[in-house]
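Notes from the 1:1 (GR / supervisor)

We went over the backlog. Supervisor wanted to see one worked example end to end before approving the batch request, so GR pasted a single chain during the call. The sequence is below; no edits were made to it. Supervisor asked that the structure be written out right there so they could see what the output format looks like.
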Amino acid sequence: MLLTMRTIGVDLAAAAPGTALAEIVWTDDAARLTRLEIGMQDADIVASVSSGDAWLGVDCPLGWPDAFVDFIRAHHVEPSLGSVDGGADWRRTLVYRHTDRVVRDRIGRWPLSVSTDRLGVTALRGAGLTSRLAEAGFPVHRAAEGRLFEVYPGGSLRLWGFDTTGYRVDATRRAILIDSLRERAPWLDLGAFRALAVTKADAFDAVIAALSTRAGALGLFEPPASGMLGVARREGWVVLPDGPLEALIAAR
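Structure output shown during the call:
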């Protein structure tokens, strides 16, 4: 069968033990999970795209809110900022990126905040990873303009119509999700990796990240509005699938 695409999904954590990588090889009418590993170092991730034919999706914010960056810069110089009231409405502008607001509108819930949750530690690692990718010649574009995408596995699953309740903490829920996924996508061959995806939530999310990356590669997502493209290039842009799971094959 003719190889048409290779997508890499990474569930990034602050350190290697919680980081998983999945690789899916796509042909015209099938998709095969060819790799699923945990304990990934940055070098492993960079090596996975070194051949130049891969698309990479990373479950990690690629930037921080503009307002947060501006505030930290100003506050670092002068703590007495007359325009700051510290209230909830004002803080929200620093907590969420533009893309986070779009995610909230699409799936009905807020993603974690890169500026105020522990996710920020992972994002610091992500900044180092994107630097290494760029040094290795892999083009890094935060606004989904190339082969790198910021993905959100839980959000993708919800938009594809799956019940994501408790799947991150319950292996039984992950097993049910995988069975439902296979029913909807009989063209997806998980091979011997099903057990790992059930056992480890990080591995499961890496698989969904690789599927989400396929949506990005096919252009099956809503890009930033033209007026917000500059913001997305700084803050990052979450690629959420625009269309059913079945379109990952049917769109070819």
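Supervisor's comment: The chain is about 45% helix and 15% strand.
Batch request approved.
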